[in-house]
Amino acid sequence: MRDYLWRLYDLIVNVFYMKNSLNNFLLFLSFLMAINCGSFGPRDSKTAQKEATKYFKSIMFDDDINDTLFTGPILIDSLKNDFVFQWYSKVPRPGATIIEVLIPKDPDREHGYRTKGERSNYAYLRNTRDFPFNEAMLITLLGLPTSDDTRQKTKHFRSVPLTRAQLEDVASFVVIKMNLLEYASCITCRYPDSLADFNTFKNTGNCNVKALDSLITHDRYGKQYYYLNLINFVVLGSPGANDRWDFDKAIMDSIFNDQEEHINTTDDDIIVKIKPRKSCQ
Question: Strand (E) positions, the chain?
């Protein structure tokens, strides 16, 4: 747009000097007024919405997230300096994550965004540009390859059936895993002894361990997730409404005794054994 106007400016100036007429001079003055007063950015809500949508899509693309998993944009406010638009996540349930985009009325200012909702850490949505939501979450949680991998164990992990409620469990596990990675980076490959340690950890230096809301650390029955630090592995899970694991003894023995990752589910229970930081020995 600016290139076009400057080409127009050159044309006007050439005509002005060739003709030196009053009409051309007035036209030149009009052009200068357009330069000073014209809008090159999101001056109104309609233009701002287009800018917001473009910006939102770029954020989602960079984070490898399918933007169709959100509803929006919704104009929620017109502030003195900004238009504010929101997108609400549809999964694992509506509104778990809210992304808020701020588009300035002044085109010389930068766009901005922030995340809100109980899942403001939306790492659980990664890999959804190329995989269905269920599979993408399992890939993120277990660090599975995103390329074609025909190994039986990989195929099993990526196809574990999850109920709608267990989708929320896995979403929470992904957020916890991200915090475990940060904790291990700060404490030299050590994991916390309990989920409560996240809320008492004192950040120093480059550490950025986050306190976790109870909505992340508790299951749908209001009980804190089962958590066990196995030095190289971490076990997370929910034993369901009856507060008892409904898995065969052989499955439970393998979870606690072998050196492999696991994920097992029943209609009510879910238990995962993950190695958040693959390089830790």
Answer: 70-78, 82-89, 98-104, 112-116, 226-229, 234-238, 262-265, 270-274
